[in-house]
UniProtKB/TrEMBL annotation:
Upper classification of the organism: Bacteria, Bacillati, Cyanobacteriota, Cyanophyceae, Nodosilineales
Gene3D superfamilies reported in the protein's UniProt record: Glycogen Phosphorylase B (3.40.50.2000)
Pfam assignment, any one: Glycos_transf_1
The protein's name: Glycosyltransferase
Domain Glycosyl transferase family: 226-381
Single GO molecular function: glycosyltransferase activity
Ranges of Basic and acidic residues composition bias in the record: 403-427
Organism: Vasconcelosia minhoensis LEGE 07310
Domain of life of the organism encoding this protein: Bacteria
Glycosyltransferase subfamily 4-like N-terminal domain residues: 14-191
């Protein structure tokens, strides 16, 4: 199959979308598909990503990454978005490639730059499927990044919702990875939702053999960390990730966190504030900076538990990665994480905003190594059922089904409803 994949971001940016896209590409390459990836050009921020060109061109057999004109995105220094100027080169590249299917990750974000739903016009002209993936509920993010006063946020969120559902409804299918996100999408007015197991993790990258007593001394120059209980934060240091709550919650726990190391992998605009906050609390917090995707598995394997305080995840990929590493996670009972993490079985969910509930469950995990081991073992067993091979196979099946439907329409047979497909608006 010839697949054109348009994405709001790609490596060297490291986040849930870019990690998902890269893992997907590895599977598509192994399966023998031809893929063209269209992503923002990161040359304008080469000072942040000096090796950005390593991730363009032919990066895998059958896979070519093509950077397109880009522009800044919501003032975040390490992000770019596809620009309006990307429309013409994208169209030309699609004409040259002649894909069998077009898939777009985060078309709502891309719309803010290109002012169109990318790929739709070409797909309609050539009668090929064009699907979208809903990764992020940007409406929830407005309050974190908008400088507007609170009384105007409701109107801005309402207006954004009108745009977002129109963008997604332009596609043949909007794909989501769980029931929570499916419900959210339908409430937003998105009518073409299809839920499936489209995200995963590769268990063989999370090797118990990578566990080493001197791991942090060897790889990060932090010998003091190795003998301590290690809490791993993994993600952007930005307002949407719940750092304000994290600092308040840890302030109440400071006297109870002896022999505990807090390891934070990621960067962002709040780094100085978070560093200062942990320093004032006298806690052992270590900032590892942005780490490559290949460094994530051994980091988690050598941790003791994963902590996230973000209430706005549509899936919680880092939670699944922690499960694959065999360590428990603690996360808010909010968003798609509630379907990824099994409360009391693979980790703990805490009540969002409840510092006491968070603290009680975190201290339980810190103080009971046997409990951590049991939860971690169950988590790894659950993660083993959610491979990227299976996830991408499900995605390819959807693309193939949409393509068959298009061909039936072309022959005048009508699309019909495929086996196992829910009616629009059904729950």
């Amino acid at each position: 199959m010839k697949i054109a994949l348009v994405t709001s971001g790609f490596l060297p940016v490291v986040d849930g979308v870019t990690v998902t896209v890269f893992n997907r590409l590895q599977q598509l390459s192994q399966q023998g598909h031809q893929v063209r990836v269209f992503c923002p050009d990161y040359s304008a921020i080469a000072a942040i990503y000096p090796h950005w060109q390593d991730d363009v061109g032919a990066i895998l057999p059958g896979v070519e990454v093509i950077p397109l004109p880009s522009e800044p995105f919501i003032g975040v220094a390490f992000e770019r978005n596809l620009a309006r100027a990307a429309l013409k080169p994208l169209q030309q590249a699609l004409e040259t490639f002649q894909p069998d299917v077009i898939h777009v990750d985060e078309p709502d974000r891309i719309f803010l730059g290109m002012l169109t739903a990318p790929g739709v016009a070409f797909a309609q002209q050539h009668n090929i499927p064009c699907t979208a993936f809903l990764h992020t509920n940007f409406i929830e993010y407005i309050e974190d990044f908008s400088p507007l006063p609170t009384w105007t946020l409701g109107s801005l969120q309402w207006g954004s919702q009108q745009i977002i559902h129109r963008v997604f409804n332009a596609y043949d299918r909007t794909l989501v990875a769980n029931g929570v996100t499916e419900t959210m999408a339908r409430q937003m007015g998105i009518r073409n939702v299809r839920r499936g197991d489209f995200l995963g993790v590769d268990l063989d990258r999370y090797r118990p053999s990578d566990l080493a007593p001197d791991f942090f001394q060897t790889h990060y120059g932090l010998p003091a960390v190795d003998p301590q209980t290690k809490l791993i934060f993994l993600g952007r240091l930005t307002p949407d990730k719940g750092w304000k709550f994290a600092l308040k919650a840890f302030a109440k726990l400071a006297d109870s966190l002896n022999n505990v190391a807090i390891l934070i992998a990621g960067d962002g605009e709040l780094q100085a504030e978070i560093q200062a906050g942990f320093q004032q609390l006298g806690l052992n917090a270590y900032f590892l900076g942005r780490i490559a995707p290949a460094a994530v598995p051994p980091l988690l394997v050598n941790g003791d538990l994963h902590v996230t305080t973000s209430t706005k995840e549509t899936f919680g990929l880092t939670v699944l990665e922690a499960m694959a590493a065999g360590i428990p996670a603690i996360a808010p009972r909010a968003g798609g994480v509630v379907e990824t993490l099994r409360d009391g079985e693979t980790g703990y969910l805490f009540t969002p905003g409840d510092e006491a509930d968070f603290g009680q469950k975190l201290l339980r995990l810190i103080g009971q190594p046997d409990l951590r081991q049991a939860l971690g073992q169950r988590g790894r067993a659950v993660a083993a059922q959610q491979s990227w091979e299976r996830a991408v196979g499900n995605l390819v099946e959807v693309w193939g089904g949409e393509g068959r439907g298009k061909r039936k329409e072309e022959r005048g047979e009508g699309r019909g409803k495929r086996k196992g497909e829910r009616e629009e608006g059904s729950e």
